[in-house]
Write a structure and sequence with these properties.
10% of the residues lie in helices and 38% in strands. It is mostly beta strands.
Amino acid sequence: MLFIWFLLLSYLCRISDSLDSLAVSQSIQDGKTLVSARGITEVGFFSPGNLTRRYLGIWYTNVSPFTVVWVANRNTPLENKSGVLKLNEKGILVLLNARNNTIWSSSNISSKAGNNPIAQLLDSGNFVVKKRQETNEDGVLWQSFDYPSDTFMPGMKLGWNLETDLERFLSSWKSVDDPAEGEYALKLNLSGYPQIMKFKGPDKKFRAGSWNGLSLVGNPGPTHGTSPRFVLNEKEVYYEYGIEDSSGFIVYKLTPSGTGQILFWTTQTRTQEVVSSGEQDQCENYAFCGPNSICNYDGNHPSCECLRGYVPKSPDQWNISIWISGCVPRNKSNCTNSYTDGFLKYTNMKLPDTSSSRFDETMSLDECQQSCLMNCSCTGYASLNVLDGGSGCLLWFNDLVDLRNFSKWGQDFYIRVPASELGTQLFFFLLLHFASALFSSSNCVYYSFILRENDGLG
């Protein structure tokens, strides 16, 4: 009797072990699923909408409405319920059709596949292939989080592994019934200071912006119960977030129409709530006002204004609210007189596109200002990190693109302007002090002044 109980217990343990994992030569067929250890996520076959095409996907268990967060064979659907998922001895997942042809397979990011690999679905929704018994990242051979579909999930990295040149980005479904790659993508752009941008094909459509130590500059408001984090080092650059309440779930979806949805539910309700349904106004459209201008939204409609020292490039179009051509400098810069330039401070701002910016993590804000002043091409500056009074330096060169003013939150931004734009008295004051400096010292002396927009000069 004891022997029988031992066999039964061993059998039950094997069933338990197989609920969330797949060993070499094991398989799951259509109609069967793997469920994560705590029953939070599930991987199996599904059909979108009322269609008969079949896909291998991952979803949260017992959440309404049914929402798939990852799809393996996005562009190669199965025509019927004959699909089989297997793990081979090299640690590669293969999806086979009725003719035993491979229609999708995972890559193997490691050349060390041995040690009895196993595929396991985690409660996070990450489907990993790893060396059995390994618990650290070094033991991971492949993971679905490295190849997102349309959903950004807690613990997932949006960005780059610089050592392997692996880019992790979101791509929308083609339609609500077709998970093939659609027109829209959400990516971390590495040009200049890294920033998150949404693209439609090659075109920039929306800019969530760069990280300032507290938030993304394009989304400075509430984080909806998440704890966001940005990592930038020689090995990787990425943005990720965690959940502050362990009983809640928050995911971001990039819809087929290009809008972003933030979905929330709890372990108790299991019913999704749309916390945010995407961009709210036209000022969110990339470069809506063109270069060197600010987009303002009063709650009813957008309006554009040129930065101080700039004028509309096409006045006739500007007067009829066609702003796309933006603004140009009122006067051409004379670099030999850059020592007379000053800076105008704008508050509650979405900082400009950082694609052509430069940054320094160690500079103070005063050092940042002087660095900008001594470079003829520098058009503005800001703190890289706003925490604890600010630190680091962001410098912009040439045109300033995609600025907007927020009613609250946002960041201080300093634009460079000739002293003549800051008022007559200040202009002659600067000339007087410069002349004095020429006669009193052989060293080059730089004067810079900062005024807030609408400040009086007295």
